Amino acid sequence: MSLLIDSSVFLHLLFDEERADEAETLLSSVETGAIKAYVTTHVLEEVAFKLMLAKGSELGETSFGGLRGGSPGTSASGRSV
Predict the structure, then answer these.
(1) 14 within a domain of the structure (yes/no)
(2) How many CB atoms lie within 10 A of CB 9?
(3) Which among 36, 31, 37 has a CA at the least distance from the CA of 6?
(4) Contact 35, 29 (CB under 8 A)
(5) Residue 58 domain-assigned (yes or no)
(6) Strand ranges (DSSP E) for the chain?
(7) Which residues, other chains included, contact 80 with Cβ-Cβ below 8 Å and sequence gap of 6+?
(8) Is 25 within 8 Å of 35 (Cβ atoms)?
(9) Angle at 56 between CA 43 and CA 23, to 5 degrees
(10) Does 54 map to a domain?
């Protein structure tokens, strides 16, 4: 059996989503050679992009969290913008 693996398989596993166990089982079968699988460069690009977005969101939460305390129309230093 051979399959074309979609980005959702990787994303379910990487983000520990509802079907992560199924994704892990599938990828383990590919790793052991029980299943032959293919992945396109587009799928790899999508997975990388979603990981970068998630990391950017995570960094934004920690790095810029202090900026949210200001009132609308003011900068981080408290000056009117």
Answers:
(1) yes
(2) 22
(3) 37
(4) yes
(5) yes
(6) 2-4, 36-38
(7) 73, 74
(8) no
(9) 35
(10) yes
Q: How many domains does the chain fold into? A: 1
Residue pLDDT, tens place only, 25-34: 999 999 999 9
Contact 42, 10 (CB under 8 A): no
Contact (CB, 8 A) for 74 and 80: yes
* pTM of the predicted model as reported, rounded to 2 decimal places: 0.70
- Parent domain of 22: 2-62
Specify if 40 maps to a domain. yes
b/e burial code for range 21-32 (CB count within 10 A of at least 16 → b): eebeebbeebee
pLDDT digits (tens, 9 = 90+) for 28-58: 999 999 999 999 999 999 999 999 999 888 8
